[in-house]
């Protein structure tokens, strides 16, 4: 256990306490007013009363970290319009398509995550493509290296393997930023095995209801 204590400051996700689940979803819409009506009607039907912020400053989002961290689940929905954007925060697990889910181990980790979200650094669609891109880079790097470098001994093979690993790591770090550094901040991206509540079908039906 002594080794674990040494690495805990570097990797807050190694802490034994139960992490908070944070789900982040993004909705792109030409009209914030229309989409907000749809979402808020859906929230109301589920008994959810979210905190709503329009074009907030980043420090405003970060200031919510301590209060949001008190809930077991943290839901964040961002609505992006052509000129403005809106955020909904609520202590429930509810998501849209292409949502990202995180395990958050400290209030500071949640504050860092909110800062990245505010700055537009967390992109659900980009993260979805990241694993495929990293695999293709790894595959192509190995193929190119095998063409240019023919190992003649064990040490040559070991050196080429290390070079490939370093290259893939650096490229993945560049493409996937900031996801590779999140564990150092107390945030761990997780794969969702199933959805609890989804809104796409509800959005479509409610949009039809509010059309003039």
Please render the helix and strand layout as text.
Blueprint: H1 2-7, E1 20-28, H2 32-45, E2 51-54, H3 58-62, H4 65-68, E3 73-80, E4 85-90, E5 100-104, H5 107-118, H6 124-148, H7 154-176, E6 187-190, H8 200-210
Parallel strand pairs: 1-3
Antiparallel strand pairs: 1-5, 2-4, 3-4, 5-6
Helix pairs in contact: 2-8, 6-7
What does this structure look like?
With 212 residues, this protein is an alpha+beta fold. Helices cover 47% and strands 17% of the residues. It has two domains: 2-122 and 181-210, no CATH class; 127-173, no CATH class. The chain has helices at residues 2-7, 32-45, 58-62, 65-68, 107-118, 124-148, 154-176, 200-210, and strands spanning 20-28, 51-54, 73-80, 85-90, 100-104, 187-190. Strands 2-4-3-1-5-6 form a six-stranded mixed β-sheet, with helices on both faces.
């Amino acid at each position: 256990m002594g080794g674990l204590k040494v690495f805990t400051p570097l990797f807050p996700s190694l802490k034994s306490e139960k992490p908070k689940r944070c789900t982040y979803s993004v909705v792109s819409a030409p009209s914030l007013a229309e989409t907000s009506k749809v979402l808020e009607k859906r929230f109301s039907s589920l008994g959810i009363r979210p905190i709503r912020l329009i074009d907030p400053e980043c420090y405003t989002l970060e200031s919510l970290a301590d209060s949001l961290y008190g809930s077991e689940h943290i839901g964040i929905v961002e609505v992006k319009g052509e000129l403005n954007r809106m955020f909904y925060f609520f202590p429930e697990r509810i998501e849209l398509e292409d949502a990202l889910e995180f395990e958050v181990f400290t209030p500071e980790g949640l504050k860092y995550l909110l800062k990245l979200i505010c700055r537009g650094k967390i992109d659900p669609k980009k993260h979805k493509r990241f694993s495929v891109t990293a695999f293709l880079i790894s595959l192509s790097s190995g193929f190119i290296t095998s063409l240019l470098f023919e190992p003649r001994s064990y040490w040559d093979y070991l050196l080429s393997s290390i070079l490939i690993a370093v290259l893939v790591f650096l490229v993945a770090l560049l493409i996937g930023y900031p996801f590779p550094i999140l564990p150092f901040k107390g945030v761990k991206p997780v794969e969702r095995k199933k959805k609890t509540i989804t809104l796409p079908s509800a959005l479509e039906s409610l949009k039809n209801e509010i059309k003039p």
